[in-house]
Amino acid sequence: MPGTKKSLAYKRVLLKLSGEALLGEKTFGIDRNFTDYLATEIKGVHELGLEIAAVVGGGNIFRGVSDTALGMDRVSADHMGMLATVINALAFQDALESAGVQARVMTAIAMRQVAEPYIRRRAMRHLEKGRVVIFAAGTSNPYFSTDTAAALRALEVGAQVLMKATRVDGVYDRDPLKHPDAVFHQEISCTEVRSKSLAVMDAAAVAMCRENRLPSVVFNLNIPGNIMRVWKGERVGTLIHP
Prior knowledge:
Carbamate kinase, nine-stranded mixed sheet
């Protein structure tokens, strides 16, 4: 599509997807209709020549800090959560390839029969070749969330922005799903996010973005076209500046 790149704000981005996002209309597991919708949204921007990496969570299957993990050893529970992210990454890869988009899953926990091991230079080469790279298994370390993994991988592969896809329109002063009078922030700093204890990303991820000057955009994934609007630099969601 000649001429379109000039109107785009970013060349390489990292998209953070929660496991809960893949639930779609379900209460557990993966909604194939939703992954197909997501793949179509990604395809639209991928065709413009943009380089896309993604990190997926595992909360739709298992989270190390969930109620179902109560009484479990925290390290074991976190490892189970990491394995859940691999399942989601494979489902996302399948949806992308069904839509005609080449994708690779790279995992921080070695499982060569299932996915490639995460190697930074190989990941960057995949991006340069136009493949969507899906990072799974977090950082392979317990006690770190997939938010932290997303910030880390974004910095490692040289992403220009961290895009966090959610079920709400951006960052609010409190949960808008529980509080209809919650105040929306169109723009906010990493320092304010931490000082106000806003539950948008964990503290380690926010600190990493602030210290390394990585901006983030929090937006509603369920609105068709939002991914394209963010890539074009339109005022969608909330910009968290370093």
